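User: Please predict the structure of the protein below. I'd like the answer in structure-token form so I can feed it into my own downstream comparison script.

Assistant: Understood. Taking the following sequence of 162 residues as input:
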Amino acid sequence: MENLKTTVECLQDLEAFHSERINGYQALLSRLAADEQHLVTLFEAFIKQSVAMKLELREAGSQWGLTESQLAMGGQFGLAWSIVKAVFSSKMPGYVLDKCRSGENALLIAYHSIEGTDGLPSSLRLLINRQKREVIAARDWISHFERLGGHSVQPPPLAAVS
């Protein structure tokens, strides 16, 4: 019974993290400046990623008889969730990509913490591990845009073939 309680709390936490991530990126989309419009596709991809991950988590929860509303109730949350929420809801001035990186790092901390939780079924642990790797890849995209200076860059011209 304790393992079921742990599983439910972990699924609820991840559901809440992804809901906050979706809300955060939607809010950031609405506040992009004219010179940041190149980030629209990236943010929309992150939103779609979280929607898909939430669906996977709901499917995993249904294996234990949990309904969508039970998963949306929220779990223990903890520090990582509060950081995700604070980063994405902040009205403080800052660079958009800095906020994104901070939010993704907080989400990774949450995944790492949940992945190490005792009593999780192996199938759920595998799902969490895969999703964590996908979030790492998303964070790498943010780093890529940061290296470009946060601006859209044209690819270099192809070398002429002789």
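That's the full token string. The chain has one domain: 2-147.
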